Amino acid sequence: MSALAVVVAMALSALLIATTGGSPLDSLNAIIQGSVGSPAAWTTTLLNATPLLVVAAGACISSRSGIFNIGQEGQVLIGAMAATAVSLRLALVGPALLVLGMFAAAVAGGVWASLSAVMHRLRGVNIVVSTLLMTFVAQQLISYAVNTPWLLQATRIGSTAPPPESNQIPVGAQLGSIGHYPQLQLNLGLFLALVLTVVVAVAMARTRWGFELKMMGLNPLTAQHAGVRVSRLGAVALGLSGAFAGIAGAVLIASPVGNFRLQPGVSSNFGWDGLLVALVARNRPIVAVPFAVLFGILRSGGNFVAATGVPSFLVDVVKGLLVLAFVAPPALADMLQRRAATAKAARSASTRSADLEGVAA
Amino acid sequence: MSVAGDVSTILASGVRLTGPLAFAACGEYIAERAGTMNISVEAMMLGGAFASVATASATGSATIGLVVGAAVGFAVAVLHGTLAHRAEINTFVVGLVLNSLVLGLTSYLIAVSRFDSHQVSLVSIPLLRDIPMVGRALFVERWPVYLLLVLVPLTWWLVERSRWGLELRAVGENPRAADVTGIRVNVRRRQALMWCGLLGGFGGAYLAVGEVGSFNQNMTAGRGYIVIAAVIFGAWRLGRTMLGCVLFGLADAMRLALPALGVTLNGQFLIAVPYVLALLAMLVFATQYREPKALGQPFERGSS
């Protein structure tokens, strides 16, 4: 059923292109060429997939515990800001700067998400709502930081006002890569993302902590009775998902995707999309890997679609339809099953009452 | 420019920026009272804005554009209701996907289309428009704004005084009890969501063919989220929600007016105002907060 839904999603996308005067085949070709058609294209695809995977791994943790964090976009930005600040302000060299930047980003993203946990704990504020609203606050905070000279705005050169962005971070704070452009180049961020994903997967599947997390997600009350400290575990899960989003922000800044500098749009929907990756992977970190690559393909391919005369926004439509195609069929199958069960129960109830009437007669 | 002139300009622009928020907030208010935390209001507004401009361009009538804009918002609501209630996909997931899908679709379509500019007509009320400072701001407006004078009391009456509204609130507060008394919980919630779709679509359409006269990529730019903030800031009461809309509209107007006034305050603070105020409102008034108790929780008969 999922395969059918994907076919339908692709057919709808093709229809959209055809009715607006483009060629679906040319567009498909452009996406493929631009994302997996050459080693250079693969390089871009994997660079885009990396932050998505980190965000998704974190989202798996919180969603597994039943706590729904939708503020990753903001947490990515806060992480990116922390990493930039550390990279530009601290007089360290080489790997120390990189590691410290990553660490600062994790802490900042985690703290930002934990604010929602604190608001929930103290005043019962809905976590979904607060993480959502905090995203927009974060966006303005970053915008303020890169528009303010004494914060992170680029240094003035000559008399022209500097653009609303930070200086480029030093080479030592950037993530290096294996291989040489334009041949296949694997950024170190990708390895970091994969390691984090495996760690999350193992922790969730093989540890007591992971079991408690799952138990809490299935039924917090039962978990509480079984001795799980639910509110603490939930806060930890939320903080961890924020920390992962923060690391994704640091990876963005330290890799070519983010141009090595803080800009207001640097998160570029990586937070929202990473959350969607976790959703279609149904909160299984390992399954998120292929989906992150798929989303990466759409991102890198999108730049090439424009050359065929079709707006690059096409990939956003395809992305939306694909997510629906992956999420809707299992839910619809469940719905049909529920309906069948209800009908069956109703049938057996009516035969039972018919039997009783027979006895009475 | 004189101080009175400045105030008048900011007021006028504030009223214009409040309009789209107020329409959509009436809808979001109804949806949330029924227990649906509807974040796809952004998709409803954006879809309505695009559809209104496309229709106005095709038919030459901005009024038909408004109607079709509301219809597109309605369609988004039907889709949301089907996925969230019938297929029982998490309502926030549905909202996120719809927001991203509608943003992609409208961005795509506006890039391949050319539309003529159409705007609904201005209505200027004699005598009242001559009141100093506020006259021009309040009484020389595009006609749909005056619909709010009917819509807001109507919404209040519907929710607080009609039987439908009573059932609606019951569904938002205690769906299980409502179900036992024979109210069809998810049907009521879908109806509320459809109202929200109509009004959200209309709000977006009003922004496009009312205030601006054209559509640009990501035109609503998060106004749907400001509407959500307004309902939260208003503590799920209609009057305070409208106050929130006016406040947020004025904050936006201030931001736009700052450069002309020669004030060097950072606009970022004013953009963040709605979200910060909504968060503060939830924190400060938490103890007497009248949030619908089942807000955002799906209802499935037979589950506990």
Q: Short summary of the structure?
A:
Chain A has 13 helices and two strands. Chain A is mainly alpha-helical and 361 residues long.
Number of helices of chain B: 12
**Overall helicity of chain B:** over 70%
**The CATH C-level class name of chain B:** Mainly Alpha
Structural class estimated from helices and strands of chain B:
mainly alpha
Q: Strands of the largest sheet of chain B, in order across it?
A: 1-2
* Major sheet description of chain B: 2 strands, antiparallel
Rg of chain A over CA atoms, rounded to whole Å, is 24 Å
Radius of gyration of chain B from CA coordinates: 19 Å
**What is the string of helix and strand elements of chain B?**
HHHHEHEHHHHHHH
Largest sheet of chain A: 2 strands, antiparallel
CATH fold-level topology of chain B:
ABC transporter involved in vitamin B12 uptake, BtuC
The CATH architecture category of chain A equals Orthogonal Bundle
- Overall number of domains of chain B: 1
- Biggest contact: A-B, 49 and 47 residues
SSE order of chain A: HHHHHHEEHHHHHHH
Number of domains of chain A: 1
Give average pLDDT of chain A, whole number. 90
Give the structural class of chain A.
Answer: mainly alpha
Quaternary class? heterodimer
Number of strands of chain B: 2
